[in-house]
Amino acid sequence: MRQQCRPVVRELAFDGADKARAQPDIIAALKGGSVRAVVICPSNPFISIEPILAVPGMRAAIAGCGAPVVAVSPIVGGRAVKGPTAKMMQELGLAVSSASVAARYGDLLDGYVVDQADAAGHPRQVHIAPTLMTTLDDEEALARTVLAFADPLT
Question: What is the DSSP string of 95-114?
Fold first, then answer.
C-alpha cells in the first residue's frame, strides 16, 4: 500500500502460488455437486481474482464442478468502477473494456454479466443488467439477476 498505484505494471507474477494450497472445504464443495453457480464478482481480475485462480488445482476445480461459472464485469462504460483495474489494463496493453476482462478469464466462463453501457463486443453468452451497485438493494438485485442468468447455463 505504501506505493499505492504509482508503479507502472509491466507484468504480473504470483510468487509462491505454486506452493499454495486451496482450502480443502472449498475443493470439497466444488466436487460435491451441490454448487448452484460459481460467481466471479466484479473485482480487479489481476489482483483479486487471478491470485485465486493461480492456486494449483483451483481453476480446474472451478471448471470441473459442474455448475455454471459466471463473472460480473468490473468495467462499466469503459471505466473501472473503483480501484486500479483500468490503470493496470492500460499499462499491460489491454483495452479497458468488459470484453478484455472476459478474455482474461478465457474458457473458464459459461456466462458474463455486463452493464448496459458495455453490451457490444462479447464472444460468449452475455447478460445485460445494471451492474453498478450503490445500495444494498442494488447488490441484492444483481445477485438475483446473476443467479437467474446462471441457472439455465447448467
Answer: -SSHHHHHHHHGGG-SEEEE
